[in-house]
Amino acid sequence: MSAPASPARADATLEGETLSVQLAGDWSITGPRPNWPAALAGRAPKRVVLGSAGLGQWDSSLLLFLFEAQQWCRIVGAHCDIKALPEKIHALLRQMSTSHETSVPFDRSENFFTGVGEATIDVWRKTKVFAHFIGECVLGGVRLVKHPQKFRWGDFIEEMQLCGAMALPIVSLVSFLVGVTLAYTGAIVLRQYGGDIYVADLVGLSMVREMGALMTGVVLAGRTGAAFAATLGNMKANEEIDALETLGISAVDFLVLPRLLALGVMMPLLAIYANALGILGGMAVSMKVLSIPPTAYWVELLTIVDMSDMLVGVIKAVVFGLIIGLAGCLRGIEAERSAAGVGRAATSAVVTAILLIIVADAIFAVAFDILGL
Amino acid sequence: MADVTDPLSDSPAIEVTGLSCGYDGQPVLKDVSFTVKRGEVFFVIGGSGCGKSTLLRNLIGLNHPLAGTVKFLGQSFTHADLAARRALLKTFGVLYQGGALWSSLTLRQNVALPLEEHTALSPREIGELATLKLAQVGLTGFEDYYPSEISGGMKKRAGLARALALDPSIVFLDEPSAGLDPVTSRKLDELVLQVRETFGTTLVVVSHELASIYSIADRVIMLDRGEQKIIAEGAPRELAAHSRDPRVIDFLHRGDRPAAPTG
Q1: In Å, how far are A43, A209, B172 from B93, measured between CA atoms?
Q2: φ/ψ bin of B243: left (φ > 0), alpha (ψ from -120 to 50), beta (otherwise)
Q3: Measured between beta carbons, which residues in chain A are less than 8 angstroms from residue B128?
Q4: Rounded CA gap, A77 and A107, in Å?
Q5: Residue B9: closest CA among chain A residues belongs to which residue?
C-alpha cells in the first residue's frame, strides 16, 4: 500500500465500566500501529466499544488489533461491541477467528522406535535401489556391446571433454601442489639422514600408486559427480526422465552410460597426467630446496617406479571413475523433484563418491598386498 | 484496502508510458502505453511469444526496460532510487506461473517470510496473519505442508496468499490458470474477484485463457508479436463484438467451432 497519510491511532476513553476505542488514521502493516495492551493501558473495563469514525486506509494490521481486542475480551469475560465497524471488517474478523480455531499444527515428530524403523527400511530400500541401478548399468553395458550403433557416441565424446579436458587446469594445480607438499614433507625427514635423493622415490611412488588416482578422484567427485547429480536431478524435476521412460527409452542407456563410460575412460588418463604433474612438483622442490639435479631425480625415480606401479594407479583410477559416475548418476536419478532435492542430490553424490573412493582404496591396498603388486 | 485518502489517490494504479522492452537490446515490445485503474481486473492477452511475460517482468522490475516509464500509484518505479524502489516493491505482490513457492519452507513459512522482512509484527501476529491469508485462499489445514506435498492448484493458491501477505495495492498474476483443470481454474478466478472485493486490490493478469478473460476481466490489452505493440484495448466482450481486427477476432472467438455433424 502507499505510505499512510496520517498515523494510525486507537483513542481509548473509559466511561464507567465501558472503554470506548475510536480507531482513526491510516493503518498499514508495514508501518507503526497501536497495539491493544497500549490502548488498554492497564484498565479492566467490563465492556469494550470499538468505533471507526476517523478511520482512513486500513489493512491486516487493523484486523490484528481488533482480533487481539476480541481475544482479550473473551479471556477476561468482557463484552466486545464491534457493531459500529464496517461490515467488511466483520467478515474478515469472522474469517480470522475461524482460521485461528481450525488451524491445527501438523505434527511431524515421531517416536524413537518409529524413527529407527523408518531409517532401517530406508537403508534397505536404498540398498535395493543401488543394486537395481548397478544391475541396470550392467544390462545397459551388455546392450551397448550388442548394439553399439545405438549408443549415444556424441554425448559420450561431449562428456569426455567436459569431465576430462575441461578438468585439466584444476587437476594440474592440485597434483602439482600435492607433489610439492610430498617433497617438502619427505625432505624434512630424509635430509636428516643424508637421504635427500630418496625424495624422488617417495614422490614418485606416492603419486603413481596412490595420490595421482586418489586426488584426481576427489577433484572429479566434487566437479563432475556433483554436475551429473545436478543435471539428472533437474531433468527429473522437469519430467524429462519420465518422458524417456514413457517413450520406452532406458534412462540408463540414454543418460547414465555415456557419462559412466566417459569417466571410466578419462579418469585413468587424468590420473596418469596427475602423476606426471605431481612428479614435476616434487622435482621442482628437489631442485630448489635440496639442490638435486633433475636428471638425478629422474634416474632415482626410475629405480623404484615400474610398470606394475603404473598399473596399480590406472586400475584404481578406472574404478574411482566408475564410482564417481555411478554415485553422481544414481543420486541424480533418485533426486526429489524440487530445487532443494537437486541440491541434496549433488551434495550426496560428492559425499558418497568420496566415501566409496576411500573405502575402495583401502580394499585395493589390502588386495594388491596379497597379490604382491 | 479501504477508503483511499492519500494525496495520490486520483492517480491510476499503474501508468505505463512509452515502454519498450526486450532482451540484449533487441525489442520485443515497442512504445507500449496504457493505464490500469485502481481496483480494476486488467488482463494482458495475446498469443504465445507476443511479449506478455516480458512486459510483466518489466512491470515488476525483474528486467529493466529499454525505454519508457512505469508508475505505481503515481510514483515512478523505473527511475526510483533504491529506497523508493524498496518502498514501491511493498505496494505490489506477484503470483508466478508455477507458484514459485520456496520448497524448503512450509506454506505458513512461505507466507510469513515477506511479513518477517517488511513488518515489525511479532512472530505470533505473523503466524496469525499467515494462517488468515492461507484461509482466505482456502488452504486451512495445509499450513504446515511443504510445497512438494500439495497439488499444482494448491501451490497457485498458496502463491496468491504469499502475494497478498503485505496487503498490496496491486497484484500481478502470471498465467494463473495454466496447467489447471477448468473447475480449479474457475475457483481461482472466483478467488481473484474475491480478493478485489475484499481488499479493493488492483489485479493485473497475464493470461490467454478465454474463460477467465470473459468471466473476470474488466479491461484487456492485446499484444501482437508481429507489430510488437498493443493492437487492441477495451472490455473483452466489447472487443469480441465490435473489433474489426482479424487477429483480435481470431483470438477472442477461437473457442467458437462449427457444430459436429449429427445423424
Answers
A1: 40, 61, 6
A2: beta
A3: 64, 67, 96, 100
A4: 32
A5: A2
- Give the type of residue at A208: V
Q: ipTM exceeding 0.85?
A: no
Using an 8 Å CB-CB cutoff, list chain B residues near A105.
143-144
Instruction: State how far the Cα of B159 lies from the Cα of A99, in Å rounded to an integer.
Output: 18
Q: Which residues of A touch B15 (CB under 8 A)?
A: none
- Return the bridge partners of B29, or none: B21
A246 has a pLDDT exceeding 50: yes
Q: Which CATH number fits domain A9-99: 3.40.50.1820, 3.30.750.24, 3.40.50.300, 1.10.10.60?
A: 3.30.750.24
DSSP percent split of chain A into helix, strand, coil, nearest 5? 75, 5, 20
pLDDT tens column, B97-111 = 888 888 878 999 999
How would residue A145 be classed by pLDDT, with cut points 50, 70 and 90? very high
Most confident of A47-56, A97-106, A344-353: A344-353
Stretch A29-44: mean pLDDT, rounded?
A: 88
Q: What is the CA radius of gyration of chain A?
A: 35
Interface test with A, best of B105, B107, B118, B125 (most A CBs within 10 A): B125
Contact status, residue A178 vs residue A278, Cβ threshold 8 Å: yes
DSSP, res A197? G
> Would you list the domain boundaries of chain A?
9-99, 140-371
- Amino acid A2: pLDDT: 46
Q: How far apart are CA B65 and CA B223, in angstroms?
A: 17
Q: Is the dihedral of CA A77, A78, A83, A87 positive or negative?
A: negative
pLDDT (0 to 100) of residue B258: 60
CA dihedral A353, A355, A360, A366 (to 10 degrees): 170
The secondary structure of A2-16 as a DSSP string is: PPPSS--EEEEEEET
pLDDT at residue B3, rounded to an integer: 39
Alpha helices by DSSP H, listed for chain B, are: 52-59, 82-89, 107-118, 123-136, 152-163, 182-199, 210-216, 236-242, 246-252
Query: Smallest Cβ distance to A60: which of B4, B104, B167?
Result: B167
**Residue A188 pLDDT greater than 80, yes or no:** yes
Phi (first) and psi of residue A104, to 5 degrees:
-110, 125
For A204-223, what is the mean pLDDT? 95
A2 contact B CB<8A: yes
> Which residues of chain B have a pLDDT value below 50?
1-8, 263
A104 contact residues in B (CB cutoff 8 A): 141
CB–CB of A2 and B1 under 8 A?
no
Sort out which chain B residues have CB atoms less than 8 A from A108's CB and list them: 144
A114 has a chain B CB within 8 A of its CB = no
Length of chain A: 373
| Contact yes or no for A108 and B144 at CB 8 A | yes
Share of chain A above pLDDT 70, in %: 99
Identify which of B5, B115, B118 has the shortest CB distance to residue A57.
B5
Q: Output the pLDDT for position A3.
A: 47
Cβ distance B132 to A32 less than 8 Å, yes or no, reads no
